[in-house]
Design a protein that fits this description.
The protein has helices at about 15, 30-45, 45-50, 70-85, 105-120, 165-180, 200-210, 240-250, and strands spanning about 1-5, 55-60, 60-70, 90-95, 125-130, 135-140, 145-155, 155-165, 185, 190, 220-225, 230-235, 255-265. The protein is α/β, with parallel strands linked by helices. A hairpin with a 2-residue loop joins β7 and β8 (about 155-165). α2 (about 30-45) packs antiparallel against α4 (about 70-85) and α6 runs parallel beside α7.
């Protein structure tokens, strides 16, 4: 099964969602199959509040999931639950996250561009942006170690290009998610040479995200990963910091699930 982000028209699981583990069961064209997915949504508290705004549609041999949910956690969990239950050829992902601030595509593109340009770890990467369907250079680096192209449509950020490591691919994705107007991030950046992934690399990427987040004190949070499931532990002073740490983990490409055991000091 593949999961396709419609904005990028990509059908490859390794680009869109390599972290989904698919268990095939009987659904076919049966309304009962769709109801099983809806029931799974209702049983997960992080999805349940958004459930009326998630729409399921069978289109030929594909399951289309569309709507808007409140958080990145609700989006990823909804896709994972659907993938685990749907006996279909593929899933078309049109599920968006409500942005912290409604912004135009141009403003979102410019903020993502600036975040990439200002990130020291990406200083050796050339950067391009798509404006009116034309790719325009923003930074050209001699002997660049990579190139990142940014396109935005209806609040959905698509990242393409090539970088020299998974850590850089993941960092670019997190930076795009942090832009207030982003409704989704499709991270199609390739890694050259190819690099095997593992739990240790996911842990390192989550720690890097926490260290760059001004809202979070990473010294108070412990991160561990097993089978792409990230567990957060520690103590923080506010609910907002606890939530920010969890979302940072969800933003990391390749994370299956986040278990948040962080406690808030009262």
């Amino acid at each position: 099964m593949w999961i396709k982000g419609e904005a990028a028209l990509l059908a490859y699981t390794d680009k869109i969602a390599p972290h989904f583990r698919v268990r095939r069961t009987l659904m076919g064209e049966s309304p009962d199959g769709l109801e099983a997915i809806r029931k799974a949504f209702r049983s997960e508290p992080r999805i349940a509040t958004a459930h009326p705004r998630i729409h399921l549609l069978l289109s030929n041999s594909d399951l289309v999931i569309e709507g808007e949910v409140a958080t990145i956690a609700a989006k990823k969990l909804a896709l994972e639950r659907a993938a685990a239950l749907a006996d279909v050829q593929g899933i078309v992902d049109r599920l968006r996250v409500a942005p912290a601030e409604r912004m135009g595509d141009g403003a979102i593109r410019d903020l993502v561009r600036d975040a990439l340009l200002e990130e020291p770890a990406l200083a050796e990467c050339s950067v391009r942006v798509v404006v009116k369907k034309r790719s325009e250079p923003v930074r050209i680096v001699d002997q660049a170690t990579g190139i990142i192209e940014v396109a935005v449509e209806d609040g959905v950020v698509t990242l393409d290009g090539e970088v020299s490591g998974l850590a850089l691919k993941r960092l670019a994705g997190v930076l795009a998610w942090w832009v207030p107007g982003s409704r989704d991030v499709i991270n199609g950046i390739g890694v050259t040479p190819p690099e095997d992934d593992d739990d240790g690399k996911i842990t390192d990427a989550v720690r890097a995200a926490l260290e760059k987040d001004a809202i979070v004190n990473p010294d108070q949070i412990r991160v561990s990963t097993r089978n792409a499931v990230v567990t957060l532990q520690g103590q923080v002073p506010t609910d907002s910091e606890r939530e920010a740490a969890e979302f940072d983990a969800w933003y990391v490409f390749g994370v299956d699930e986040v278990v948040n055991h962080i406690k808030v000091r009262r």
